[in-house]
């Protein structure tokens, strides 16, 4: 596994831990208002994780995990990320990315971990700072 891929994995788990903590706090307040358990199990974690990631990436091109691991997400041409691009990337990563990677692994290993299927789809690249 390439160095940047290891850093991306560690950054993902850091972001997941932060997101899980925020979901716990959000659910504490939402339990009084929303009684449906399906909302708490399916919708709240996804919405919180996506919102946190989008807000952080729009602000600085880095999530907390990316900052800790010395990574930055940017467009292929080097300009600032758009909201649409971040949402496309997040949605694709959470739905189709794994299947794309398994089916065409050699293609993505050529880029040394800078471009994974969801990056390719959203036209983004992860670089070390």
Strands, helices and their partners?
Blueprint: H1 3-33, H2 37-60, H3 64-69, E1 71-75, H4 83-95, H5 97-103, H6 105-109, H7 117-122, E2 124-128
Antiparallel strand pairs: 1-2
- H-E string: HHHEHHHHE
Unreliable runs: none
What's the helix count? Answer: 7
Structural class: mainly alpha
Helix content: over 70%
Task: Please describe the biggest sheet, giving its number of strands, its sense, and whether it closes into a barrel.
Answer: 2 strands, antiparallel
Please, what is the average pLDDT? 91
What percentage of amino acids are in beta strands? Answer: 5-15%
What do you see in this structure?
Helices cover 71% and strands 8% of the residues. It has helices at residues 3-33, 37-60, 64-69, 83-95, 97-103, 105-109, 117-122, and strands at 71-75, 124-128.
């Amino acid at each position: 596994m390439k160095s940047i891929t290891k850093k991306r994995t560690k950054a993902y788990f850091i972001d997941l831990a932060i997101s899980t903590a925020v979901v716990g706090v959000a659910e504490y307040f939402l339990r009084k208002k929303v009684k449906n358990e399906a909302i708490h199990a399916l919708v709240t974690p996804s919405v919180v994780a996506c919102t946190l990631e989008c807000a952080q990436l729009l602000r600085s091109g880095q999530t907390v995990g990316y900052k800790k691991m010395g990574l930055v997400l940017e467009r292929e041409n080097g300009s600032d990320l758009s909201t649409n691009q971040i949402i496309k990337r997040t949605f694709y990563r959470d739905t189709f990315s794994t299947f794309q990677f398994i089916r065409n692994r050699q293609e993505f290993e050529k880029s040394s971990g800078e471009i994974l299927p969801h990056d390719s789809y959203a036209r983004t690249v992860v670089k070390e700072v």
